[in-house]
Amino acid sequence: MRIFDLDMQMVDTKELPQRARYYQSICDGLALAKGDFYTSLKPQYILFLCPMDIFGRGFPVYHFENRAKEDPKITLDDLTYKNFYIFTKYEKFVDPVVKAYMKYFATRSADSRETETINNLESFFKTDTLTRSKYMTFEYELHESEQKGIEKAEAKALEEKKAMAKGFRDDGFPLEAIAKRTGFTIDEIKAL
C-alpha cells in the first residue's frame, strides 16, 4: 500500500516546500497508530500540481527524497517522496498518460479516456446542485460539529469537576480549600 497526498497549487505562495513537509507530517500522524512500529509506515507521496516552475530550472517534474549531503548516492530510504509536477510543461512529459493529465490541467482539453473521465466528473459536480450545496456547506458543518464536540467535552469536564468537588465536600474537606482548588464558590459547593 502507498499513501498519496495530492494538492493543486495555482499560485506560488513561496512556502510550498514547507507545505510539503507539513503534509508529510500530517500523513505520518494519520498512518501510525499509537504503539505501532515505525517499520509499519508505508511509502508516502506528496504530490503538487503547479502551473509555475517554482524551482526555475525548466524541468517538467521535480522528484525529492532525503539524501546524504556527503554522498547523494546514499538515500535515507524513509519512504517519503515529494514531487512537484509543472503541468504547463506537459509537452516535456514522456509517459503518455501523465502527459495527457498534465495537458488537461494546463489547457482543459480532454483528449484522452482518462481526462474525459475527469472532465465528465467535474462537469457533473459543477451542475449537481445537491453535491455543490454539500461541498459549500461542508466546512461550516465540520466547524459546527467541532464546536458541538468542544461544548460536549467542556460540559463533561464541568460535571466531573462538580462530582469531584461534591465528593471532597462529602468527605469533610474544608469548603474554602475545595473552592480554591476548583474555582467554585462556597455557595456553589454547598448546592452540589
Describe the structure.
This protein is α/β, with parallel strands linked by helices. It has 2 domains: 3-92, no CATH class; 137-191, no CATH class. Helix content is 52%, strand content 12%. The chain is built from 6 helices and 4 strands. The chain has helices at 16-31, 96-107, 113-127, 129-170, 175-182, 186-191; strands spanning 3-8, 44-50, 61-64, 80-86. α4 (129-170) runs antiparallel to α5. The radius of gyration is 27 Å and the shape is elongated.
Gross morphology:
elongated
Question: How many domains in all?
Answer: 2
Structural class: alpha/beta
Q: Whole-number radius of gyration? A: 27 Å
DSSP E strands, number: 4
Calculate the terminal CA-CA distance, rounded to whole Å.
Answer: 55 Å
Largest sheet: 4 strands, mixed
Arithmetic mean pLDDT: 87
Our count of helices gives 6
Task: Tell me the helix content.
Answer: 40-55%
Major sheet strand order = 1-2-4-3
Uncertain ranges: none
Order of helices and strands: EHEEEHHHHH
Q: Which band does the percent of strand residues land in?
A: 5-15%
Features:
single chain; 192 residues; alpha/beta; 2 domains; four-stranded mixed β-sheet; 4 strands
Write the topology of this structure:
Elements: E1 3-8, H1 16-31, E2 44-50, E3 61-64, E4 80-86, H2 96-107, H3 113-127, H4 129-170, H5 175-182, H6 186-191
Parallel strand pairs: 1-2, 2-4
Antiparallel strand pairs: 3-4
Helix pairs in contact: 4-5
